[in-house]
Design brief:
Elements lengths: L3 E6 L2 E6 L2 E5 L14 H24 L5 E12 L13 E12 L4 H11 L3 H7 L27
Antiparallel strand pairs: 1-2, 2-3, 4-5
């Protein structure tokens, strides 16, 4: 899987994923143009979308009457010392993502409990909670042609 992102202007970024093109930006109070969701909003959107799709696939396979699903995700940072169960150094920031999920349909308590468990098995959730190694791939940079008045550029 691969996506590409290109700076358009200011903080606006054009993102291409498969046959889709969309934009990310920063809000005006952060000197952006607010032409799209922020990168963190896109991140949470990816997680929410993945959870909903994963549960829908599971419910369809089981033949359950899932007629709708709503998810609300919130994200905040706190010092590890303020978060129960945090394993980081006390002053290190910890990111907390909280989800609230509701289901619609003729579902019993066991089905709802199972779907809540399945939501945490979506691929994006697994990436977030698993080990991630970020690598930088060396890319040759294009040579810029600097044209200054009074200086002859023989390469031009």
């Amino acid at each position: 899987m691969s996506i590409s992102a290109k700076l358009i202007r200011n903080y606006q970024v054009e993102i291409k994923a498969g046959s889709h093109t969309f934009y990310s930006d920063e809000p005006k109070d952060l000197k952006g143009d607010d032409t799209g969701p922020t990168p963190m909003e896109l991140f949470l959107s990816s997680l929410a979308g993945c959870k909903v799709i994963t549960v829908q696939m599971y419910a369809q396979r089981k033949g359950w009457d899932l007629q709708g699903m709503n998810i609300q995700l919130t994200m905040e940072k706190k010092k590890a010392s303020e978060v129960e169960g945090a394993q980081s150094a006390p002053n290190k920031p910890v990111t907390i993502i909280e989800s609230a999920i509701t289901f619609e349909g003729d579902l019993d308590e066991d089905q709802i409990k199972r779907m809540l468990t399945i939501a945490d098995k979506c691929p994006v959730h697994k990436v977030v909670t698993g080990e991630v190694i970020m690598k930088k791939k060396p890319v040759p940079q294009p040579q810029s042609k600097l044209h200054l008045p009074g200086i002859v550029n023989n390469d031009a």
